[in-house]
Amino acid sequence: ESIKVGMLVTLSGPPGALGGQSRDGFQLALEELGGKMGGQDVEFIVEDDELKPEVALSKANSLIERDSVDFVVGTIFSNMLAAVFKPVTQSETFLISPNAGPSTFAGKNCNPYFFVTSYQNNQNFETLGKYAEAAGIKKAFFLAPNYQAGRDQAEGFRKHFTGEVVEELYTPLGHKDFSAEIAQMAASDAEALFTFMPGGMGVRLVKQFRAAGLADRMKFYSAFTVDETTLPAQQDDAVGFFGATNWAPNLDTPQNKAFVAAFEAKYGYVPGGYAMQGYDTAMLINAAVEAVGGDLSDKDAVRAALKAADFTSLRGDFSFNNNHYPVQDFYLLQVAKRDDGKYQTEIVEKVFDDYADGFAESCPM
Amino acid sequence: MLVIEDLSASYAGAPALFDVSLSVGEGEVATLMGRNGMGKTTTIRAMMGMMPGVGGAVTGGRVQFKGADLTGAASYRVAKAGIGLVPEGRQVFPTLSVEENLIATARDGGRWSLGEVYTFFPRLQERKTQAAAQLSGGEQQMLAIGRALMTNPTLLVLDEATEGLAPLIRAEIWERLAELKRAGQSILVVDKDVTALRSLADRHVILEKGHVVWRGDAKDLEADPDVVDRYLHL
Amino acid sequence: MSSPILRLAGLHKSFGALVATDNVTLDLSPGECHALIGPNGAGKTTLIHQISGVLKPDAGRIFFAEQDVTDAAPHERAQLGMARSFQITSIIPGFTVLENVALAAQARSGSSFRFFGRAKAETALNDAAIQALTIVGLEARRDTVAGSLSHGEKRSLELAIALAMAPKALILDEPMAGMGREESARLITTLRELKSRVPILLVEHDMEAVFALADRVSVLVYGRVIASGAPEEIRADPEVRSAYLGEDAA
Amino acid sequence: MKDALEQATSGGGKVSRDWGAIAPAVLVFALLALGPLAAEAYGGAYLTSLLMRMMLLAIAAISLDLLIGQGGMVSFGHAAFIGLGAYVAGIMITEGAADLAMILPMAIVASTVFAVVTGAISLRTSGVYFIMITLAFGQMLFFTASSLSAYGGDDGLTLWERSTVFGFDLLSSNVTLYYLILVTLIGAYALVGALVGSRFGRVLRAAKENPTRVEALGFSVFSYRLTAYVIAGVMAGVAGVLMANQAEFVSPSTLAWQRSGELIIMVVLGGMGLRNGALLGAVALVALEETLSSITHDWRLIFGPLLVLTVLYAKTGLAGVADAWVARLWRRA
Amino acid sequence: MSTTLLLIQLLNGLQLGVLLFLIAAGLTLVFGVMGFINLAHGVQYMVGAYLAVAFYGVTEHFLAAMVLALLAALAIGLALEFLVFRRLYHRDHLDQVLATFGVILFLNQAAKTIFGPTPLILPTPEWLDGSFLLVEGLLYPWYRIAVIVAGLAVAALLYVLVRHTKVGMLVRAGAANPQMVSALGVDIERLFMIVFGFGAMLAGFAGVLAAPIFSVEPGMGDDLLIVAFVVIIIGGIGSIKGAFIAALLVGLVDTLGRTLATDAMKLFFDVSSANQIGPALASMLIYILMAAVLFFRPTGLFPAKGMA
Ligand SMILES: Nc1ncnc2c1ncn2[C@@H]1O[C@H](COP(=O)(O)OP(=O)(O)OP(=O)(O)O)[C@@H](O)[C@H]1O
Ligand SMILES: Nc1ncnc2c1ncn2[C@@H]1O[C@H](COP(=O)(O)OP(=O)(O)OP(=O)(O)O)[C@@H](O)[C@H]1O
Ligand SMILES: [Mg+2]
Ligand SMILES: [Mg+2]
Questions:
Q1: Which residues of D make CB contacts under 8 Å with C?
Q2: How far is the CA of E181 from the centre of ligand 3 (A)?
Q3: What is the number of domains present in chain D?
Q4: What ipTM did this prediction achieve?
Q5: Residue C19 falls within a domain, yes or no?
């Protein structure tokens, strides 16, 4: 008997970097566990959803039906999660998201077979909103790609921010040239930019923002825009810019220090949140398998063990809410250049302590 | 100058030309005659290396031009060797202007220049900036002739070059060809105007279903003036 | 003679500075063959394009079968019984010879918005097609793919298509061009028989054909009709001789 | 005597030729009919859902080939119709009008309207211009769907139940849905096959090669093309309704240009305008992608060159190759 | 919106337009003029960018990296031509689509396998690294000016090449009737090979120049490929002038659309609906523009005369 874990993440194209980190983090944990969970061998199957819903669905089916996995770890993107959510949970297989945390499944559609080890998507921007409020920022410029996640961020931002959003701009997904948006920023009287521009979009925005000289006039606050997946390309242009999330490589706990060192030694790049969450997911599953003594047939017991989250998270405090989304701390981060010439985000201050998302109330679980 | 021996060709595997031989000497005019679909154009295509372009192939025989072997050569090589083609159905370059059609493939080294061609066909000069696709049928035909002349060929090949030309122009062309011949130009011509060909050509070949069924020179034809009508079923 | 089947009244058409049709008034009466001749680029094809609806005249009207068709689409004119041939061969190259002509027959026999039933098996269409092919001497080639016909054979097919439309009037643009002498001769015979039933507007540079067929000849030069009359008059007209026929024509 | 004999033999020849023409498709249908049985033994719902997706794409590809292969109208926005059908299904199910008896007519109406409007505009152009203008309409619909926040925006919409059929809950069983899709596929195949041979199809094919000539014969090329465009659109729309039910999920990616591109690829790979082309193209493409991607994540390194080789060496597409095989078998038999 | 901002946005629109033309230039030649549907144009653009990054890693010198990248892009283009494309010139357009699609899949994946999925960058050359003050508080990088100059230069070069040289005439003639060009004594295959190589180089050039502004990542050319086609179609296939004007038009419409659409929608809808509809409309604008142009001019703004 062995434990089967299927991972379904995006590995194709530029967003593949995120899935790659997730996979690497999980694998590192598995290695540290000696390839075993609860004393049993682990078979780890990785599938690429190619960022196409129908591929995600097909791969999920293949993990469930053909490979009969015990856990599906996925996905990175919310729209992939929506595609596989129903078939996976309906088959009574545990679906653990290492990154995507849409509001859709946090409230009334929460599910006993679904866990999230990252955050509820809006929370990073709620953190920024809270920080901006506390820092006394009165006028904010909001910029995000025109898709659901972008709109969720705006909503998250406004949750704690009572100042004025002087402009709320949405660019096409995959936007290339930000000249027009930058001109609008320059013309506005906003004190700071709040932006959500994942992947290559973030790289382009940061470079063009810096080149236009705006960095000297406006603060740059963001989520998913300057992180360890984009910093190798943004480099000096991003130094000093702010991010917000649940963790940073320099978080000062012994486990985390060991993790970052081991990770960099093994993979040769600085781990980002995706890697951390991949690692934590593996540790979470391991803890649950151990708790039930390797017997995965009693789903209720497994669920209870998962929910207990009896492991030491790299980010310190970690527990699950009633909706199986985490309760954890959130930080304001800032990009810095390390002594070895690499770039990473570093913690500036803790904004939320043991923060839970706002959708949990409507979850019947 | 041009020697074709036992040339055979087929379209998509179906034979269309069988052992056709033919020659054109320096300063000579030769004709290819035959009813529709008998293989005149195919002979010219096979000689010019144009069969692959229309889904066909040369399956046998030899083509020599000025002593060089051109059998199976790519058509640009045949043309460069000094053969200027006025193809059946005009085939002017539709998106090019009249003048561009004339100069695009022009080669120096002979009597034909833009000015010469324009004097020959004043109509072309009037329309020189117009896209060739918008020319009238006859104007396109003039253009196709002019284009071939602009390559200053040693052998001029005309495949139904007078199709669609007004009687006046057609007469002028026959006159001009006679003049060219006197100046030493070699010509291979396919045309339905048998009367004109008779007075112009030195030798004749008649094709039927891809086979040569009669050949002879101007004297032979004079001796048996009905032969053409016989083979052309008139 | 009864009223004309086709009548052009004061047609004008120019391409930029070039006047291709200059106040052309012309008609075609039942039972006649009206030949239209003129130098290359005189505007004959342009005129036919306007008659058939491919081009829109700048001014003037076109009447066909008692109707003003100036603004009608080409297919509407064809439905009224106008059939034309193209100077530059226009066939369906991927169809067999038979299917090319059968399609023409189909156009004049009932609706083609029929989604079921094999068109190829409709004997009425095939018979009509074979009839037209026989007229032009192409029946032996009926199963050949039209695109692989020789040039002259394509010209014959072009004509067979027009014939198979069972038209009320035929507008032919250089039907003899590219045809061999034998084929031309045969065609002349056919058209001579046909014209009593189907009037023909004939554009042609083959003077043998024109003078063998035409009841009336009009001469177009620079878009204008410079002469119109019986063949003999035209042949003798000095202006026509110098502009078009050449001095030794006769 | 001789004539009669000839007729008899050629007639006989025709029958066998007709069978030969559809033999590859019949084989595919037979194999597909065994799909659920095979799934019992291997792969379970994974296999059936894969085969269902394959069949649905095949329906869409077959309808697209009516446009491309027969009509010369290369639509780069065909996925819009799938998406339209899927969204009609998704929205109606979400809003509680889940019965196929309501959804199907609604989807047909929606596809027809969209096809008539966009077709009438697009058909003013031809060739590459047509490709691009259909792309434009597809993109407009795509961005519209992406901004439908109420129905999930670009995250897509999870369907919490499948359609009922006249009140009966037939489709919640994968097997019933499977056979419904198979029957629809066979119907689509037969329909397009009939259309192609009909008077209508003949005009359409002729207009593909020489519209001016066809117009001069008295056919309104525009009307024939528009009719074909509507028929194809409706077929794809129906496929979309079934697709939403099969995936229990609808998202804008269903109508992204990449999806339209894939449909074109299927048609071309299979062999444009050939009886079995679109069907074989869809089956081959889905099977190949699935197989290769289960072998390696870098499967495109193999798949790309494979496509290139197919173009270079199987000039008539897969169906052309299949036809040649069938012809050889027939001669031997 | 203030007049200054509007002017700046007009400038930005034109700037984007020139950049789009630069990216579309190679395609204009190979597809527009030569008539070959080369979907691989987008990946050739990407290849140029990656090559520049790779060579920069070796030489640490922008110009040197650029020259090497161009040569390599040419070599890769010629290799593709030799192996694949030359067998497709006389084939159906859709066969070209399928084959070049295969090339896209392969090269995108190869880029990812070799260079990894994360975005890379090419630094701006030092001698162009500065900016000047456009208006109070907004700098404009010199590098962008250089890109605009390059775009204008390429436009002029292409125009002269295609319209006024014998090579240009032969390519246009060959696009319509390669057999006839050959029958008149021109080695059309070699000519096409050269043109294709040049097109690949132009694509690579655009990739190199865009790399310091945009990010270098797998698939970076895919979306731009579509925009390039949009540009060529609006301009009219085969027309360099058309493509240039269309590029400017697309740049302007896209930029102004993104700036104004939401505000315009606010006139008709409440703020949150406007925020919903505006950006969606802005994304659609270039497609609406294309559809509108084709509605009134079914063969684009400046169709080449005599196109069948
Ligand atoms: N591209 C082609 N594919 C297949 N068969 C062809 C092709 N071109 C010509 N043929 C066939 O080859 C034979 C000879 O044709 P060819 O064109 O040489 O005749 P031709 O003597 O020039 O006739 P015409 O006087 O009509 O021009 C004909 O039977 C014709 O059908
Ligand atoms: N679309 C167009 N644009 C510009 N000029 C044109 C166009 N079509 C035709 N022309 C010109 O109009 C004139 C008349 O052409 P048309 O084809 O009607 O001549 P035609 O009398 O049929 O000549 P032919 O006997 O040579 O066929 C020609 O000079 C031609 O170049
Ligand atoms: Mg011939
Ligand atoms: Mg004419």
A1: 194-195, 197-203, 205-206, 209-210, 212-221, 224, 227
A2: 19
A3: 1
A4: 0.93
A5: yes
